[in-house]
Amino acid sequence: MTNSNQNNQANTQFTVPGMDDSHADKAVAILDNRMVSLLDLSLTLKHVHWNVVGPNFIGVHEMLDPQVESVREMVDTIAERIATMGGVPVGTPKSIVDRRSWQDYSLGKALVLEHLGALDMVYNGVNGDHRKAIGKMVGLDPVSEDMLIEQLTALEQFQWFVRAHLESADGNLSTAGESTESGAASAAS
């Protein structure tokens, strides 16, 4: 197997009946990017789960596990769709790091609001990129498009759960205007 096959860059040898091979290749590349993002998100959520401290610890600690499980199911769904279309889903640790375009989550052990502020920034990136992927999937593969829409529905709800901790009674986010995890963590605390 060549390195390009390991990174899911090879052309598909087959795809689902009725789908053009070039469309399948493009759809697989889009899905591969989303798979890497969601793998990273699931690990980040678990990291926050282990490292969150302070007031409201238990509520946030317990809020994150269902998110982790749901995101892991999303990863599995995407990986199986990639395989269905003739692609090769690659989820090894090094390949994930090599294929991502963002930096590692920046907080270690931190207070609840700091982690939630940073996590809001993570969800901004994941959800924004999922929405862009949906737009790119239009005309390529309605099945994958629908799958990504369903996932984004859940991901946006998870972000809402996070933001509920960061919102004031008048509807303002404590992290408004921040663009980095560390900036959002500071603003939230």
Automatic annotation (TrEMBL):
Residues 29-168 form the Ferritin/DPS domain. InterPro entries: DPS_DNA-bd, DPS_DNA-bd_CS, Ferritin-like, Ferritin-like_SF, Ferritin_DPS_dom. SUPFAM superfamilies: Ferritin-like. Keywords: DNA-binding. GO terms for molecular function: DNA binding; ferric iron binding; oxidoreductase activity, acting on metal ions. Pfam families: Ferritin. Belongs to the Dps family. This is Starvation-inducible DNA-binding protein. The gene is dps.
